Amino acid sequence: MTPSELAARAAAARAAREARPRSIAVCTSAGCLATGATAARRALEDEVRAAGLDGAVEVHGTGCLGLCHAGPAVEVHGPGASGDGHRCRCLYERVDAPLARRIVREHLAADAPVAERALAPDDPLLVRQLRIATAGFGRVDPERIDTCLAEGGYGALARAVTERTPSEVIAELAASGLRGRGGAGYPTGLKWATVAKAPGGEKLVVCNADEGDPGAFMDRAILEGDPHRVLEGMAIAGYAVGARRGYVYVRGEYRLAIARLRAAIAEAEALGLLGARVLGTPFSFPVELRIGAGAYVCGEETALVASIEGGRGTPRPRPPYPAERGAFGLPTLVNNVETLANVPAIVSRGGAWFAGLGTARSKGTKVLALSGDVRRSGVVEVEMGTTLRTVIEELGGGVAPGRTVKAAQTGGPSGGCIPARHLDLPIDYESLQEVGSFMGSGGLVVMDDRSCMVDVARFFLEFCRDESCGKCVPCRAGTVQLHEILQRLCRGEGAPEDVARIEELGELLRATSLCGLGQGAPNPILSTLRHFREEVLAHAVERRCPAGACELAAAPRALAGSGT
Question: What is the distance between the alpha carbons of residues 17 and 20, in angstroms, rounded to a whole number?
């Protein structure tokens, strides 16, 4: 396929879509499939046929619609223009077969939306998001490439390989201010330039899809909902840095994402968008999948590289960095899913456009996985600088009636617990670090006033202890010792000196662990000491749990008087 043939096919796909004034998008991500999306879709299709609306209404699958707490979710698109220039939309939650039939009979046939399970047009979930990495959700069917082409898919790749030099593409990424969305926040343009300058005739691009943080499911949603956007970003990266091969390293637990990636790669290769001579140019870029076995540490790029090579997924000291010597000894660009999903839009709309979004040092948007004690959990994408309060209370609906927000945990098991008094903190790299947390990949776990912060820290320490690869002593032994201290505190067996032990051991792990897992493992308990010190002291000195949530709540008086 040549660029002109791509443009013609995309125009045909848009014309076919516009020939039907209305469409129904059914979320077919893992969460909605688990709650009955297949049955809801079948009921919608049957009712559309029965109503004789086949020629006017299309029913199709799509990515996450942000209602993971209330699936299956369905979005109805109709005539008119919404704020983003696309057709008006109405979002429904908990769509079962009876509601599916009503949507067709009342909303489509009689133009009367079913109010009781439809979100209001001004709902924050509809109006407060700014979608870039997730722009295809609701519009793209992940199992049909033509729906991607209709939305401009692979157009940025065509422009890059035919109209721009590799250095011009890298300059655009640098101008955008895009930073790695995997957690470290390293400037993407600088990383690409480093790989491009590395000596050697063969280079690689790796998409890090080994998402393993508890409470994180953003990358999974993107891969399940719009895999072509990520593949296009990888191909543009390959062209820019001089790579001729790509790998997607994805968690083995993500079966639906794996299946859709495989199908998307095959579709793209069949059209000449990946593989040999992309779009009829000299540039070739085949993409292969590598399936991880579920080791959290393989999210660290040197461990990921070792696993791709067929070895044990353990980190190694740096330098050399993968950008200099990575997989199979070749210079390797490692970017995560969300980072690559932003690339096509930046190439299409320009680095200056992207740099105009967000804050002074944190540009663009961030995809967040909102979960925990919020009333509405799901995947949302907001402009950098949006406050935690906006995400939790407006998009997430706040906590249950009668409860209050106690803390928000960002950054996964290596992140920190942020108290409610900092809810007006903007979501960006620097602001989160100032309060002892960090961005991480985008998990946002909300806790209400029933949560015991010592117990929460114990959970994350247990995760890090179990996921430690054991290669370095500080992480292998230190996570065990920290977890045992927290176990004692929660059982009412702690002592005042345990607080000092936690701080000393936590700083030791930060300073001496080999990789980010060990270095970040103490963060949840150290941030808890920083913001909830009185609660930790209550466990250690008074042997009571102020929240009444851990083992101490069962018999605090007996424990306090036992002398143990």
Answer: 6
Overall pTM > 0.90: yes
Average pLDDT, the chain: 92
From residue 426, how far is each of 272, 297, 423, 433 by CA, in Å? 43, 29, 8, 11
Helix pair 497-512, 523-531: axis angle to 10 deg: 140
Distance from C-alpha of 370 to C-alpha of 362, rounded to nearest angstrom: 20
Query: With the C-alpha atoms ordered 352, 358, 361, 366, is the resulting torsion angle positive or negative?
Result: negative
Exposed / middle / buried, residue 564 (Cβ in 10 Å: 0-12, 13-18, 19+): exposed
Question: Which tokens in the block code for residue 113?
Answer: 């939306």
pLDDT digits (tens, 9 = 90+) for 390-417: 999 999 999 999 999 999 999 888 888 9
Phi, psi of 361 (to 5 degrees): -115, -10
Rounded to 5°, the CA angle 434-398-451 comes to: 70
Nearest alpha-carbon partner for 501 in 521, 482, 476, 480: 482
Instruction: Copy the structure tokens of residue 185.
Output: 């926040």
User: How many Cβ atoms from other residues are within 10 Å of residue 508's Cβ?
Assistant: 16
Q: List % helix, strand, coil for the chain (3-state, nearest 5).
A: 50, 15, 35
* Residue in 375, 379, 374, 391 with CA at minimum distance from that of residue 428: 391
pLDDT digits (tens, 9 = 90+) for 421-455: 999 999 999 999 899 888 888 899 999 999 999 99
Do 342 and 262 form a contact (C-beta atoms < 8 A)?
no
Q: 139 is written with which tokens?
A: 């519009």
